[in-house]
Each structure stands twice: as structure tokens, then as C-alpha cells.
Amino acid sequence: MNNEISNSELNRLIPPEIKNDEFYATLQRITREENIKTVLEIGSSSGEGSTEAFVTGIRHNPHKPILFCMEVSKTRFTELQKRYENDDFVK
Fold it and tell me: What is the pLDDT of residues 43-74, one digit of tens each?
């Protein structure tokens, strides 16, 4: 493996940037209460921040929206997949 790739910042997990703050609560409320069908999150990381807010809200939304997550880091995406493997609505 190329040394630049092996030392890339993309290969490490990072702490959530949106967690238990006003924006997190707003994401949770919107995905819980609104009549939405789809949510697209670009840059889901390992799923511990805003993704968690989306998932928590969607679990209680009677309209059963689908959450599509995108993450460029293979390391973070692997953790994201593990975290939500039992949630059918997370893609």
C-alpha cells in the first residue's frame, strides 16, 4: 500500500462533530415528526453524531423514512455499517 494512503486521515475514526447539542436535537425532531420519505446524509463518518440523531428520530416516525448514508472513508464506513446493520431503513 502506498505510504501516503496508509497514513491518510481517511483511515482514522474521528469523534462526532454534532452530538447532543441544539442542532442534534433539531435533526432528531424533524426526522421524528415530519412527513418525509427520504433523508440523504453526505459525510456520515462512523455514525455517532448527526447520523445517530437521524436514526433516533426515524425510529419514531410513523411514515418510516429511509436514511441513505454516504462516507468516503472505508474505515469510517465499515464502522457505520456495523453500527446500523440491524436498522433496515439505514442504507
Answer: 999 999 999 999 999 999 999 999 999 999 99
Verdict on whether the full-model pTM lies above 0.85: yes
Query: Per DSSP, what are the bridge partners of residue 69?
Result: 41
Query: Considering only CA atoms, which of 87, 46, 45 is closest in space to residue 67?
Result: 87
Q: What is the enclosing helix (H) or strand (E) of 4? A: helix 3-6
DSSP code for 5? H
**Bridge partner list, 41:** 69
Q: Is the pLDDT of residue 3 over 60?
A: no
Q: Which three cell numbers stand for residue 49?
A: 453524531
Supply the pLDDT for residue 7: 65
Q: What are phi and psi of 23, to 5 degrees?
A: -65, -40
The residue among 10, 18, 14, 1 whose CA lies nearest residue 72 is 10
CA 14 to chain centre: 13
